[in-house]
Amino acid sequence: MIHKIAIIGASGYTGAELIRIIATHPNFQIVMLVANSKAGKPMAEVFPHLRHLNLPNLSKLEDVDFSGIDLCFCALPHKTSQEVISQLPKYLKIIDLSADFRIRDPKAYEKWYGNPHIAPETQKEAVYGLTEFFRDEIAKARLVAGTGCNSATGQFMLRPLLSADVIDTNDIILDMKCAVSGAGRALKENLLHSELSEGYNAYGVGGTHRHLGEFDQEFSAIAGKPVKIQFTPHLIPANRGILATGYVHGIPKDVHATLYEAYKDEPFLTVLPFGTTPSTHHVRGSNFCHIGVTGDRIEGRSIVIGVMDNLTKGSSGQAVQNANLMLGEDETSGLLMAPIFP
Amino acid sequence: MIHKIAIIGASGYTGAELIRIIATHPNFQIVMLVANSKAGKPMAEVFPHLRHLNLPNLSKLEDVDFSGIDLCFCALPHKTSQEVISQLPKYLKIIDLSADFRIRDPKAYEKWYGNPHIAPETQKEAVYGLTEFFRDEIAKARLVAGTGCNSATGQFMLRPLLSADVIDTNDIILDMKCAVSGAGRALKENLLHSELSEGYNAYGVGGTHRHLGEFDQEFSAIAGKPVKIQFTPHLIPANRGILATGYVHGIPKDVHATLYEAYKDEPFLTVLPFGTTPSTHHVRGSNFCHIGVTGDRIEGRSIVIGVMDNLTKGSSGQAVQNANLMLGEDETSGLLMAPIFP
Amino acid sequence: MIHKIAIIGASGYTGAELIRIIATHPNFQIVMLVANSKAGKPMAEVFPHLRHLNLPNLSKLEDVDFSGIDLCFCALPHKTSQEVISQLPKYLKIIDLSADFRIRDPKAYEKWYGNPHIAPETQKEAVYGLTEFFRDEIAKARLVAGTGCNSATGQFMLRPLLSADVIDTNDIILDMKCAVSGAGRALKENLLHSELSEGYNAYGVGGTHRHLGEFDQEFSAIAGKPVKIQFTPHLIPANRGILATGYVHGIPKDVHATLYEAYKDEPFLTVLPFGTTPSTHHVRGSNFCHIGVTGDRIEGRSIVIGVMDNLTKGSSGQAVQNANLMLGEDETSGLLMAPIFP
Amino acid sequence: MIHKIAIIGASGYTGAELIRIIATHPNFQIVMLVANSKAGKPMAEVFPHLRHLNLPNLSKLEDVDFSGIDLCFCALPHKTSQEVISQLPKYLKIIDLSADFRIRDPKAYEKWYGNPHIAPETQKEAVYGLTEFFRDEIAKARLVAGTGCNSATGQFMLRPLLSADVIDTNDIILDMKCAVSGAGRALKENLLHSELSEGYNAYGVGGTHRHLGEFDQEFSAIAGKPVKIQFTPHLIPANRGILATGYVHGIPKDVHATLYEAYKDEPFLTVLPFGTTPSTHHVRGSNFCHIGVTGDRIEGRSIVIGVMDNLTKGSSGQAVQNANLMLGEDETSGLLMAPIFP
After folding, report:
1. Which residues from chain C sit within 8 angstroms of residue D50, using beta carbons?
2. At the topology level of CATH, where does C150-310 sit?
3. What ipTM was assigned to the predicted interfaces of this complex?
4. CB distance C205–B303 less than 8 Å?
5. D110-160 pLDDT, tens digit each
6. Under an 8 A CB cutoff, do C197 and A13 touch?
7. Does the CA dihedral A61-A67-A68-A69 come out positive or negative?
8. In the CATH hierarchy, which fold is given to the domain comprising B3-147+313-326?
9. A279-291 burial: b if 16+ Cβ within 10 Å, else e
10. Given an 8 Å threshold on Cβ–Cβ distance, is B193 in contact with D189?
11. At what angle do helices B13-22 and B317-326 cross, to 10 degrees?
12. Per-residue pLDDT tens for A7-21?
């Protein structure tokens, strides 16, 4: 059975990545692409790498008829996303890739994002889209909120450790190295090739990065008490990839065993043999997440390293994985493409 | 029907690319991987990006039993390739990705490659693997010689123009810009990141590059007279991609129309609208080739630009395309993955 | 004797490069930095790599007093530059890095740049700033027009060959590979790291690139007849560098000897031994230009390859070299820093 | 007064960087270059970016006469370095850039480097070359051991904090991001452009990296008790740069004030305003080190970030700085070149 798919926000990188993935999905068909700023243009102009596909031209949101659509991906910036989604038909299945429905508490949303939430009722419908931990709710959901790419990485590394209580919740550091496509297609000076290539820097330091809102929400829920981690992202001169180095207090072998056990049946989450370190090279363009665990010379300290492709498993791949669940497809359908290397 | 596939030379980039493509091929199953230098190792160690696949460990050639193999890809360096292939069972369907069987005339082979050909009888069996121009022979062949990646690009740009006699055969220049994976996984100083990134240079200048052997053979055959082009490759700091800028004497609109007409039904070859220039960004990781044509302010001069991914359409993708023909599969089977961008 | 230097347009890359060079110039002192869009800001914020220098804050042009300034560099976009320079004091020595005073004929300027020239009288004062060919005029000039970076590269490769009449003026092709800083610090989608890194493409094809205005002007003047070359620039994923591959009809040994003879006493122009190919790696961050010559297998064809750093020898280094002449300093003063590698 | 300089190990990156710096040093003259593996070759062939300099050809060590040499830089791999240096004339001033004389305790050396120290007597003469902390000893030394690039970065960030006792010595984490030139010019698969560009990974995890030997030695000496930090290096796809993110327990304002006070008169060490994060972009190719301090949302935690160019301040720049002290030159002589950006 072919499912008819719409994408709102099709002129950004996560929109293009959705199309890339769906291009070889056996049962999804893209029937509508929306991008107000580039409405009327053919995709061959906006993303020439997709020119071989028989795609509809970009439309304005106001010109769109959602009847007949089985599922709509919404890949808009946060704040815009809640405005748009709250106006969409209430029967429509939606996967939102923005931050707007990730935070259950509207006050926490406002704290991290700076703007009040204008659709708190819609928020109540939203299911948090970290597939491997919310499968059943996602399968039944009308609205799924895709996670942040950084927060997905950190959660895959830490959730089982918090659940099993094998690490100290007071001393968790995530030092994250993020590729640039995570910043989107926006025209900002620091994203220019000349400014970015051949160098790197931290940003959002000091516990100010918005993905902390998700970490706080999820980790505190698991631990049953407030958990505050330290999180420092760094911008790396590469296009795709997230690598998070986690410094935790816990017995290395226990940490490894807990993660291994948690994910041993997961199709996309791989815990490497103890002592092996993962690389973003080995997941690029794919929906896989690799996690490695090592000890340190200081007893009782563990280092957990997770990698994924921010655009795929961190965003659009996760979204398709969730769409498969929502539409009754096999969860891995369309998502088993191998990483691209070199 | 599932075809059982072997790959000899599985520890190099074209070997890995074959596996990447076949990973999502509906009817190919990899049952044997050979790499003498790394025999005994699991692929998860040699190419960790392929660790999610259920692949056999690497074997030594001498330990291999080819009965039951439907097709064998051979991704060895030239010279080694002819030694190995001449010893393989004569019933075995083979696609060679090296240069060893591309040149029909053993003397021409020796001239360009420096070593005498040791398997001239096997050479006689070989069909030149430029799929779009040799489909029928490839479908019936036992041994197919994959083309050079540079020469494939140049031929897609020029063959129809020579056939239609719309350009001057005495004044053809191909200025080529090649990404580094074309040089393979060899340990050479000039391929180190420190030596290569952030700079670029010509190499093999002055009509000395080996792919000229293929250009001479093919273009002269089409034109019915000796055709010698000028060809200068440049090494560019990127991992995948070939871009060839062709300077020819011919009427731009005729040049464009000829190419457009030649390829209008081809699934993988796209001639862009007149005046549009292609980019390697838009074919990366895919089996597509884009060709653009523009005029020049000097009347009677045309500029033809072709791009492809050297590892995919330029090598392993072409090989799978040929394998599909040889095994009775749809020619595009397993090859319709969209390019990866960014 | 210390010369007091002003820079207008100090927030762009060529402005920053002027400051980088002048930082170790023994006799130049920067006393004024102008950048209207960022006026009031300290340079440590606009270009943090210059924070160790004791630089004045950025000023608005209207707030500036030019008395006491010995020389003013103007690193503004074209069109703006002529508006500003025509309003500056008539006694002020100026080096303009824009395109506005490079083209002697205002009609030719308008043809290539699309806007009429508003300061044709000032234009008449301007000396073309290709140092090695206009030393005497530059030394006496009040206003020097820095050349285009692409056109400087091409001229160093071709001027002596045209003067000596050793190549055919009807068949000259320059295939140019340009790093991205040449496009400046403008916020354009195609200059984003995500869009540019790992891929490359031609642009300004078909004889439309503005630097052709300079080539036409200069080459026709040398040859004493209209000379039209073919020129195709390509955008390469690197920050600094120009490499031009020149295809000419002429005897290789004569071509090499002519260039070698022309430049053998030049401090910044090096003609490599015959058959050696230059690399942008080897001139990065320096004021040097390397030129290599090889033959082709087709008799009577020569390949000339030139490389330079577009920001240094192609722009700000050339400007300082000219300033040295205009202020009576040694021509190489402040310009002998070695290239940076890797 | 001109000092005559020899460089042993001139065919590697730190050797080339020494030459790049000395090229514009007013009082240093290179009179001898040694590189056994490439003896007899001109530098224009080994490092074409240095071809404009009038350098001696590379020599074999055995052919060299050290009389008349004022100072010798030794840029060999560790283990080889101690073998060579122990055979050099005892009167010769030497700066060793290898690891061989950094560790005062031969047993600790053997533990970290795997081989016994063969020149323990020579070791006793060696002064640790972290200029800003050992100026007086360096000025009087015959043999100075250049520090590791990573350990220099970490020490600049942490020494004043340990001296002032403003951080907890039991909880210090350095998460380091290293560019690839730090790995040298060795032919290793993981250093190939195809393997490295567009991805990143940790290495030497778990407290195994050799630079911990220096951290342990120096930090324990300052604290007057054993101090063991956690240190995880990551390989980043860039050629030059070190960025270390330090996670410490200490009051942010105190941490910043302590560092600011310690370095306020240092020409090469800059502590940025509180809350500002440094970037490797802003020190590339220069001898400067930038340090930033921020707080965290968790009270009592500070984040200290340090950046430098591994080849310059991290190695060859430090060496020239030390040479200036040893030869009575101004400490900054030849070292004030501005960073190169972009």
Report:
1. 338-339
2. Dihydrodipicolinate Reductase; domain 2 (3.30.360)
3. 0.97
4. yes
5. 999 999 999 999 999 999 999 999 999 999 999 999 999 999 999 999 999
6. no
7. positive
8. Rossmann fold (3.40.50)
9. bbbbbbbbbbbbb
10. no
11. 50
12. 999 999 999 999 999
